[in-house]
């Protein structure tokens, strides 16, 4: 995921926490606020485990979000990992993320010939 799409400042996270619309799945929670630009942030609490586990979950969430970025509507997104995300496999995280985005109607329609991700070995959408 490119740095231009990342939510960085604590004030931005607080704004999304305060004003955001939330939706939940088993592995994560999504908070969304409409905005003029597309920014995505990830939050992983200490309940998930040591720093190694938390960083691994964050990397996997970023990787799951990267192919969806061109289809996401503009706004500020925060994905909050829940404890089951530490043990979930990558495909389960991808499905949960797509489920949350579809449920809140945050995905733009996909073009007919456009693949859902850049890699050929990824699971189909």
Describe the fold and architecture.
This protein is α+β, with helices and mostly antiparallel strands and 125 residues long. Helix content is 31%, strand content 19%. The chain contains 3 helices and 4 strands, in the order H-E-E-E-H-E-H. The chain has helices at 10-19, 51-65, 90-103, and strands at residues 21-24, 28-33, 38-44, 75-81. The chain has a 4-stranded mixed beta sheet with strand order 1-2-4-3, sandwiched between helices. Strand 1 (21-24) and strand 2 (28-33) form a beta hairpin. Helix 2 (51-65) crosses helix 3 (90-103). The protein is globular. The chain starts with 9 loop residues before the first helix and ends in a 22-residue tail after the last helix. Mean pLDDT is 87; it is low at 118-125.
Q: Which features characterize this protein?
A:
single chain; alpha+beta; 4-stranded mixed beta sheet
User: How much strand?
Assistant: 15-25%
Q: In order across it, which strands form the biggest sheet?
A: 1-2-4-3
Order of helices and strands: HEEEHEH
Supply the helix-strand structural class.
alpha+beta
Shape: globular
Oligomeric state of this protein: single chain
Q: Give unreliable regions as ranges.
A: 118-125
Distance between the termini: 19 Å
Helix content: 25-40%
